[in-house]
Specification:
Shape: elongated
Strand order of the largest sheet: 1-2
Distance between the termini: 43 Å
Largest sheet: 2 strands, antiparallel
Number of strands: 2
Number of helices: 1
Structural class: alpha+beta
Length: 71
C-alpha cells in the first residue's frame, strides 16, 4: 500500500483599518461564502461594541475572490 502525505489546511481571513487595528480568524476549512459571512458577523458585532457609529466612516474593499460575491 502506498502512503499518501496529507498536508493540513489552514486558512486566514484578515481585515485592517486605518487606525492600525487588525481582525483575523484562522480556520481549518476551505474559505467560502459562509465562512466570510461568519467572519463579518463577528467583526461587525465587535465594531458595534467598540466603535459605535463605525458604519458612517467605513468602506469595505474586496479582491476578486469568488467567495466574496457568492449568494
Amino acid at each position: 500500500m502506498k502512503l499518501k502525505t496529507i498536508q493540513p489546511r489552514l486558512s486566514m481571513i484578515s481585515a485592517l483599518d486605518t487606525d492600525g487595528k487588525v481582525w483575523f480568524t484562522l480556520t481549518h476549512s476551505t474559505t467560502d461564502g459562509d465562512v466570510i459571512a461568519l467572519f463579518l458577523k463577528h467583526m461587525i458585532a465587535t465594531l458595534d461594541q467598540e466603535e459605535p457609529g463605525w458604519q458612517y466612516n467605513t468602506v469595505f474593499l474586496w479582491d476578486n475572490a469568488p467567495y466574496h460575491s457568492s449568494t
